[in-house]
Specification:
Shape: globular
Largest sheet: 12 strands, mixed
Oligomer: single chain
Radius of gyration: 21 Å
Strand content: 25-35%
Strand order of the largest sheet: 1-2-3-8-7-4-9-10-14-13-12-11
Distance between the termini: 55 Å
Order of helices and strands: EEEHEEEEEHEHEHEEEEHHH
Number of strands: 14
Structural class: alpha+beta
Low-confidence stretches: 1-26
Length: 301
């Protein structure tokens, strides 16, 4: 069993079974090419945050919620920020409340060990009987290992798919495009079966395309459209899936609020572990702030 992070007592001793591409070292992961990736896993504070959300009845046991996950660079010049001049925290939200934060140095690729991060992000709400209906994530979560974890922990999921030659070969075969209007803009949509990763599970890819105003030809598709694709189920219409996926903008707004209103843009400490504690505490303050605003709004306009 390795002591993974700091000596503050806020991060517990953990033991990992790491696969072929990396092994756990004292303060994070080391890849096969001997590159270290610093992580901070703080289950105690994240668990306290969820218990606080239950105490204020912002989250309710045995109720299903939508789960959003995203990573975003938090720019800084800290001693251990490494590549990209910042940290790259992974943040999970439920019903616009932050429920999990895992800080990582900026040199970690968005997909690197994300399945393990998500396992912990799903696990803590599950301990409190907070149930997940739908998970919504961007293309940074589009990989076999990550999709597996998402599928195991949510009833439905909507994940933006990466562009690839294989995908556009399938798109070339589509002849039945359906017009759809979303937020006063006109798109064309179609559905195809996923042939990558899990062909046996019969997942669906919704393809949405929009005519380019500049009429530039797409290098993959060979036409003047912008293409987007979403991995999902077959239960909802193409328009419904796109509108559900568009909720992901809420997670981007959370980063904006934390950076500008709750101090993430001005982290007070020199090292990742201490700053991770600050980030979680400020997330808890934001959650309490939302709770208080709801209470005050019942009395004052």
């Amino acid at each position: 069993m390795d002591k993974m992070f700091d000596n503050s007592g806020l991060c517990r001793l953990i033991d990992y079974e790491i696969g072929m591409r990396g092994k756990l070292i004292g303060y994070g992961y080391m890849s096969d090419s001997v590159i270290t990736y610093n992580f901070n896993i703080n289950e105690k504070l994240n668990r306290l945050n969820i218990k606080s959300l239950k105490l204020t009845k912002e989250l309710t046991e045995a109720k299903y919620y939508d789960f959003l996950y995203d990573n975003q660079i938090t720019a800084n010049n800290k001693y251990d920020a490494k590549k990209n001049k910042g940290y790259f925290p992974g943040v999970a939200t439920i019903d616009n409340k932050i429920v999990y934060i895992e800080n990582r140095a900026g040199n970690a690729n968005v997909k690197f060990k994300q399945e393990e991060t998500l396992g912990r992000a799903y696990g803590l709400p599950a301990e409190e009987n907070i149930l997940i209906n739908c998970s919504i994530m961007d293309a940074g979560s589009y990989s076999k290992n990550i999709i597996d974890v998402v599928a195991q922990n949510s009833k439905l999921f909507y994940i933006r798919a990466n562009r690839s030659c294989n995908l556009f070969k399938q798109i070339e075969q589509i002849s039945d495009w359906q017009g759809v209007e979303i937020n006063y803009k006109n798109y064309e949509g179609a559905s195809i079966s996923l042939t990558q990763f899990f062909a046996d599970r019969k997942y669906r890819l919704i393809i949405m395309r929009e005519k380019r105003d500049d009429h530039q030809t797409d290098i993959f598709a060979g036409d003047a459209y912008t293409y987007r694709s979403i991995l999902n189920d077959w239960q909802n219409s193409e328009k419904e899936v796109i509108e559900l996926y568009n909720q992901r903008g809420a997670s981007e707004k959370v980063f904006d609020e934390m950076n500008n209103d709750f101090g993430w843009k001005h982290l007070p400490f020199s090292f990742l572990d201490e700053n991770a504690v600050f980030m979680i505490v400020m997330a808890m303050i934001r959650n309490f702030y939302i709770f208080m605003v709801k209470k005050v709004s019942l009395i004052f306009d």
